[in-house]
Amino acid sequence: MKLNYKKIHPFGAMVETAHPGNAPQQVQVSDLRALFNQEHLVVLRGFQNFASKDEFCTYCDLWGEISLWPFDKVLELVEQKNPEDHIFDHNYVPLHWDGMYRPQVPEYQIFHCVSAPEKNQGGRTAFSNTALALERISASERELWARTSGVYERKMEFYHSKTVAPIITSHPTKGFPVIRYCEPPKAGDESFVNHPTYDFQGLRQEEVEGLIQGLQKALYAPENFYAHEWQTGDIVISDNYTLLHGREAFTSGASRHLRRVHVLGSPPLQNPHLVFHS
Ligand SMILES: [Fe+2]
Q1: 3-class secondary structure for 96-151?
Q2: What is the distance, to the nearest Å, from the Cα of residue 218 to the centroid of all Cα atoms in its chain?
Q3: What's the 51 CA to ligand 1 centre distance in angstroms?
Q4: Is 152 a domain residue?
Q5: Predicted TM-score of the model (pTM)
Q6: φ, ψ for residue 238, nearest 5 deg
Q7: How many structural domains comprise the chain?
Q8: Which of 93, 109, 118, 174 measures 20 to 30 Å from 238, CA to CA?
Q9: Distance 121 CA to ligand 1 centre (A)
Q10: What is the DSSP string of 61-91?
C-alpha cells in the first residue's frame, strides 16, 4: 500500500486510509517508522477499530517490545470517580515525558481512541516538539536552561520515584538537543489531584520564575505545539524521546476513552535520570 499522508502543522503526519475500514496492519510499520523518524508524531485515521485491547496490543507488538507496567501492557485512560491521581481526573495534565519515573523510558507512545469526547468537550492531547523549541530560544535562555536540572518526585498507585533531569539534554540515539521537563501544575490549583513535588538545581532562586515562564512560552508557542483533537478510532504514535505531552481538561462525564501502550526503543533506554524507584 502506498503511504499517503498529510503534514500536520507544525509537526506530525496524518495517514488517512482511502478505504475506510481497512486494517491498520495493511500499512507497513517500516513506512510508518520512517515517517515517525521524520515527523515525530503519526496519526492513523479511518482504519478499522481494534475490537479489544488484545487486538490493540497485537498491533503495538509490530512496533517493538511493549513495556510492562504493574497493570500489564495497556493503560486505560478514562475518567474515574474520585480519582487518586490527576491522570484519571478530567482535569488538565501538565507537559511531561513518559517513563520519567520508571526504570526504562519508552521511545514510542501508541494511543488508540476507543471513544472520543464531543467536539465542545475539550480533552485534546497536547504535544510540544522540544527540538523545534530549542532552535528558537535566545542565547540567554539557552545558557540558563543548559545549567539547570529539574528535580521531581512522584508517588502514585504504580510507583514512588525521584528523577533529576537536565532541562536540555540529547536525544538518546540521534544526538540532537531535546528538552526534558515536567511542567509544574498551575499555582494555587487546589483541584489538581496528587501533583509531583518539583525543584530546580543549578540556578539562583530568583531565576526560577523566569525559567518556568520561558519554558512555558517556548513549549506552547504555536510553531512548536500541536494539540490532537480525538476522533473515535484514531491511532497516534508519538516520539517520547523528542516530544513532551500533556492533556487539556475535558468536561466531566464526557465519553473520552483512550488506551495507551509504551513501546521501548531498540535497545531499550535505561532511564538515565532516575534517582530512586520503588
Ligand atoms: Fe504521559
Answers
A1: ECCCCCCCEECCEEEEEEEECCCHHHECCEEEEEHHHHHHCCCHHHHHHHHCCEEE
A2: 17
A3: 24
A4: yes
A5: 0.95
A6: -125, 155
A7: 1
A8: 118
A9: 20
A10: HTTSPBPPBTTBS-EEEE--SS-SSGGGSSS
Q: How far is the CA of 19 from the centre of ligand 1 (A)?
A: 32
- Distance in Å, CA 227 to ligand 1 centroid: 14
249 CA to centre of ligand 1 in angstroms? 14
22 CA to centre of ligand 1 in angstroms:
29
22 φ/ψ angles, rounded to the nearest 5 degrees: -60, 145
The verdict on residue 1 lying in a domain is no
Task: Confirm if 73 and 159 have CB atoms less than 8 A apart.
Answer: no
pLDDT for 158? 82
CATH of the domain at 76: 3.60.130.10
pLDDT of residue 1 exceeding 60, the answer is: no
Q: Is there a domain that residue 36 lies in?
A: yes
Q: What is the CA(245)–ligand 1 centre distance, in A?
A: 6
The C-alpha cell 535562555 sits at 141
Ligand 1 centroid to 246 CA: how many Å? 6
* Domain carrying residue 254: 6-277
Q: What is the mean pLDDT of residues 217-236?
A: 97
Going by C-beta distance under 8 Å and a sequence separation of 6 or more, which residues neighbour residue 32?
A: 3, 15, 42, 44, 237
| Region for residue 234 given its phi and psi (left: phi exceeds 0; alpha: psi -120 to 50; beta: otherwise) | beta
Residue 217 lies in a domain: yes
CB of 259 within 8 A of CB of 77?
Answer: yes
The pairing of beta strand 41-45 with beta strand 13-16: parallel
pLDDT tens-place string over residues 101-159: 999 999 999 999 999 999 999 999 999 999 999 999 999 999 999 999 999 998 888 88
Q: What is the pLDDT of residues 38-80, one digit of tens each?
A: 999 999 999 999 999 999 999 999 999 999 988 889 999 988 8
Angle at 105 between CA 102 and CA 108, to 5 degrees: 135
Give the span between the Cα atoms of 275 and 268, in whole angstroms: 18
